[in-house]
Design goal:
The protein is mainly alpha-helical. The chain has two domains: about 150 residues, no CATH class; about 350 residues, Neurolysin, domain 3 (Orthogonal Bundle). About 65% of the residues lie in helices and about 5% in strands. The chain has a three-stranded mixed beta sheet. α9 packs parallel to α10. It is globular, with a radius of gyration of 23 Å. The termini are far apart. The structure holds zinc ion (ZN). Zinc ion binds next to α10 and α11.
Length: about 500
């Protein structure tokens, strides 16, 4: 079929363009000299423009139309469905709105950096207001027929997720975590793990753990970055980044494991489907479920620290490491202000706050001027604390300044998916915890490959999750995990 050949050839080109843009972005965040910022901005913008022109082109729509009227096999059907959704979104947005958004994002980001530095929200408010107006316009243009305007934004990050599904789930999770935190409040915290360990040794430890978990170093690499991230640049090239703190080995190692989870998902995507667009992750929430599963469920467990302690002893032979102490330190629970530093339980409350505010913004109930007040009110009510400054409150995250509305829920969707995957794995994989303790992670990775990675985007994330988890309740699974691990450490149980 001619249209199919044309389509897959174009998709391969688009994948190459996206890969090239991703290398530039990776370089920008790792090795690029500061003076290159402007020329790099031009290079990236040009690639994005070419990408958009070649994707949103009339012939692309014509190929889709032709294919939709013909006989298709299952792969072709899934690919056409995927590209139709993306194509319609790309052509629905007026080009004036696309350029206005792009300018507003750049200006918003710079204003946010200055405002955060000066701890002065008023420096950011006018640019944020512009972003809110344009985002509402964008949602209106994309969300024709949607039950909630926010659904149109979720589509970019978690295709298949809707406000109607997320709101009751997040509400219930918020209440249950609140009950859990109330039980833990006032209990003594385990001491933090602050052993000073040199960066060189930490690097070797990270490399060792990556290799043991199953990350393929022939098809990827690990570098340092101020804000760890990972990115797939194409088949056989997955870049991870991490950071090291001499007095907090668990923080840097946690970043390494988190990014490794993302990276192993990218490495496990179905390479045979290259050119169809289906060899990509099914959504940000599912991506995050992979990183959170390894970082939290495995990487903060006692069997994992029993695996880790002798490997640490091999790197620092004159020191001794207690798995129990590291385990306790890694599972401290405390109401706190900063999302990225939050523990496994409280983290979700930070997301629930942002989700509620974003819904109100899209419903037109909140303007930029209202946000600091609404932020403090929501933190008091949901997290139980109030930020002493804008910097530690409404200005803490980069997302809104870059026009990323609809992104935050992915983090908690990831935690919820990971919770049910974990419980299902305990049933499916005999001796799960002995495997972890002995450092034999292969059967665990194989399970993820089979049930998640190899599906690529042949189905939506929601469908992939349901196919694996059946009718498991992810909120109940996450709460069971928190009560049994963290509850036991703090000596509390469900009443
Ligand atoms: Zn992540």
């Amino acid at each position: 079929m001619n249209a199919w050949q044309n389509l897959t050839e174009r998709v391969r080109e688009l994948d190459s363009l996206a890969g090239a843009a991703a290398i530039l972005e990776w370089d920008q965040q790792t090795y690029m000299p500061a003076k290159a910022a402007e020329s790099r901005g031009e290079q990236t913008a040009l690639l994005q423009k070419i990408y958009h022109e070649r994707f949103a082109a009339p012939e692309f729509g014509a190929w889709l139309g032709e294919l939709e009227g013909g006989e298709l096999d299952a792969t072709q059907k899934a690919a056409v469905r995927l590209h139709r959704r993306r194509y319609d979104r790309a052509v629905k947005l007026p080009s004036a709105l696309v350029s206005a958004l792009s300018v507003a994002r750049t200006e918003g980001f710079h204003a946010w950096v200055s405002a955060k530095e000066a701890d002065d929200y008023s420096l950011f408010a006018p640019k944020l207001q512009r972003l809110l107006d344009l985002t509402r316009e964008q949602a209106a243009a994309l969300g024709e027929g949607a039950a909630h305007p926010y659904d149109a934004l979720l589509e970019d990050y978690d295709p298949g997720s809707t406000v109607a599904d997320l709101r009751p789930m997040f509400d219930r999770l918020g209440v249950e975590i609140g009950t859990f935190l109330t039980a833990v409040d006032g209990r003594a915290h385990p001491p933090p793990f602050t052993e000073r360990l040199d960066e060189d040794g930490q690097k070797r430890l990270s490399a060792r753990v990556l290799r043991d978990l199953g990350f393929d170093m022939e098809g990827g690499r690990l570098d340092k970055a101020a804000h760890p991230f990972s990115t797939g640049l194409g088949v056989g090239d997955v870049r991870l980044t991490t950071r090291y703190f001499e007095d907090n080995v668990l923080s840097g190692l946690g970043s390494t494991i988190h990014e490794c989870g993302h990276g192993m998902y990218e490495q496990g995507l179905p390479a045979a489907l290259a050119g169809t667009g289906l060899n990509q992750a099914a959504g940000m929430g599912l991506h995050e479920s992979q990183s959170r599963f390894w970082e939290n469920f495995v990487g903060r467990s006692l069997p994992y620290f029993r695996y880790l302690a002798p490997r640490m002893g091999a790197i620092w032979p004159d020191r001794s490491f207690s798995p129990e102490k590291m385990y306790a330190a890694a599972n401290r629970v405390q109401r706190s202000l900063i999302r990225v530093e939050a523990d496994e339980a409280t983290y979700n409350l930070h997301i629930i706050v942002r989700f509620g505010l974003e819904l109100a913004i899209l419903e037109g109930q909140l303007q930029a001027a209202d946000l600091p007040g609404a932020w403090d009110e929501a933190y008091g009510r949901i997290v139980g604390i109030t930020a002493p400054s804008a910097r530690t409150g409404v200005l803490q995250d980069v997302h809104w300044s870059s026009g990323l509305f609809g992104y935050f829920p992915s983090y908690t969707i990831g935690n919820l998916y990971a919770a049910s995957f974990s419980q299902k794995m305990l049933v499916d994989i005999p001796g799960f915890w002995s495997l972890v303790e002995s450092g034999d992670f292969a059967p665990i990775l194989a399970w993820l490959r089979r049930h998640v990675h190899q599906k690529g985007s042949t189905a939506t994330a929601v469908d992939i999750f349901r196919e694996v988890a059946g009718d498991r309740d992810p909120v109940a699974d996450l709460m069971d995990h928190l009560w049994s691990r963290h509850g036991a450490l703090y000596g509390v149980s469900r009443s």
